Amino acid sequence: MVKYYLSHQGQQVGPWSYQEIVSQLEAKKADWTDYIYDEKSSGWVLLAEHDLMKAYFNKKEKPESHVLHPGNDKKWFILKSENKYGPFSYFELVKMLQEKSLSDSDYIWTAAMASWKRFPDCDEFKAEKIRELKNSNLPEVEKIFLQRRFARAKFGAAVLVHNSKTVWKGKSLELSSGGAGLIIENQSFEPGQTLFLHFKVGDKVPPFNAICSVVSKQYVSSNAKEVKYGVKFTNISRDVRHAIKAFTDHEA
User: Which residue, 98, 1, 96, is CA-closest to 47?
Assistant: First the structure.
């Protein structure tokens, strides 16, 4: 029986069979925004996009009788890398944005819109609207804005990035024991892609290596060679994780 690993909240879990993954989803112990490791592509793929789970995801019953607030109404669709997913509720999309499972290059659509729009161009998902939702104190939104699992701190260090074939230069902006924010001189990386990192000495953290999965992508400017990426660590040593935690706990 083939079994798979998932990346859930910055931690690798499994291995699980297809049915065990379904059980984890039903028990709310796994999310559609988690990543699943695909041996065929040797990379991590968004669970909702993986061929194994697509049929179940598209057929999964989404009862409207449980809608308590318009934000729970499943009427939004996502266009990611030419593939369409949904429907999702507004609250689900906001949660995906908080988890950085969606990037500025992804598109969304609902029946009230004349055409597909990128997330940054849609008024409902602009920073001020999200801030207003966060401050609304609605019971329905409490779980959307969960406290970060890992403390973060500003962290400046040179980073070498490679995909087993080519090496690029980068620099870190922030760091946590679960991931990092990076500026990389390459525009071609996409969410779900696996990268190998070497962090040089910086800000009281010794140099270290990490395997990571890209979770977000943001263009600094239309003409810039550098792109801001959010990554989550899928493999770092225990000693490195403890060193990062000690640093971020002190700086946060």
Answer: 96
